[in-house]
Amino acid sequence: MRGFLVTPIATTVLLGLAWLALPAQAEKTLQIADGLKVTLEYTLTLPDQTVADSTAGKEPFAYIHGEHEIIPGLEKGLTGLKAGDKKRIVLAAADAYGSYDEKKKVSVPKANVPPETKVGSLLRSEEGLEARVIQVSGDSVVLDMNHPLAGKNLVFDVNILKVEKPASAK
Q: pLDDT tens across 2-22, in order?
């Protein structure tokens, strides 16, 4: 049986190849932290097991961690996870969309909303605020300006697909 001879040139090539492989390996072990791009799959359920949202059958969700693109409690719960990690994150309403605020119910003249408005309609103001119509009576319409998930505890089942430096940071 012949021995394997490693020359200085071969050593340099072997070490060089190992060094080239490090960034890809390092990307696989990156932990979720501020400034990193995170790609994940999730299912959001309410305490009664109703599915409120999911990426199932859709493209995975991607965001930049620490940029306030997702709710604070979820961002905190994802910190430190790596690609391949799966986790259930249970959030109290205060860490999600906040408590339900009765003061965010407002009455507006019916003339200020589209004529086809009915209970359950979603409206958007010129400023981009969303409201759900909860009552139509006479000359007025009652709008609920709370987020639809305000006051609700949320359960996120997440599967982390990728943690990487954003394209602009490479």
A: 443 444 444 444 344 444 444
